[in-house]
Sequence to fold (357 residues):
Amino acid sequence: MTGTATIPLVRAEGDPFTIGRCHGAARSGPLRAFIGDSLCRLNRVMQPPVSMEELLPTIAAYDEEIAKAAPDLAEEIEGLARGADISRAHASLLQLRREIMGYRKIPTLGDCTTYARAGSGAGLGGGEPVLAQTVDLNGNLDDQISVLEVARTGSARRVLVLSFAGLLGYLGLNSDGLAVGLNLVLGGQWRPGLPPYLAIRHLLDTAASVDEAVAALRGMRLASSRSITLCDPTKAAYVEVVEDELRVVEAAQTVHTNHLLHADLAPRDELNVFARNSSLRRLDACRRGLASVPQQAGVEDHFALLSAPPICVPDGGDIRLERTVAAVVMLPSRGELYVRPGDPSAAKTQAFTLRHG
Fold:
């Protein structure tokens, strides 16, 4: 994706099935092409290759857990399949790609770098809350970016979500002023459960604050390890999850990359040495860079930090390796999500704002 490409915006309102059907219909061509591209590009980044037939039992096991943990999202996946004219199994696979890939052993230079600042209610000198991050993925997924604006029947809450290739959730914000970001961390046994991308969407659908989101996470069986960053007008936090262990770190400002930071979980970190070195460099660079970004900084100031090496990970030409495919700045109090698709140092900023109900 070039810096001038327009990110598709999908607006969907109604019950969960209707929302999924609208999403699927709007993205049907790209989603079918993506599924047909080496099985969602899995076989371009994994060895040995996998087939849909051998994945069906695994998909079924995850579907069962999704239906138990977030039945509304299970219905939305069904609607996605109907709208895009794909099978239910393929619609589920779109949600599970990262879990199917599992732990990656290929040395890599990056994954996401995320930071959050709480607002003036946390005593930060009049600044507003912000959550910003790079999105580092393999598979060349910058051609699969879209933004979803979702409003469910019976709820006044509206949600803005950054999506890749049919994902119902990845990162985003809601009309209550909660923003959610994420970082991959590696630890524990990955197992059928609620994929973290869907968990983030569930938080945005159901939680109004950092405290409510943390409470919800405590009751979830996540499929894979993650660090989830939360921000509202008065609080910022990250939540590290490894299997059924969860640790919360609250601060006026947080920074996270891809190694476990909490002392209780750090011994369980499985990140390979190459990725860990990159994670440490990016963590240090982000902390130092953020110290120079004033509390009243504008969106472009945050993008300048996200666009600088080593935080921005360049394309090395290997589809198997993670690189920065987008950068995002969210202002949750305003309901604003800003995205630079592809390499953020070469892209223009695109703005998305929650409509009032």
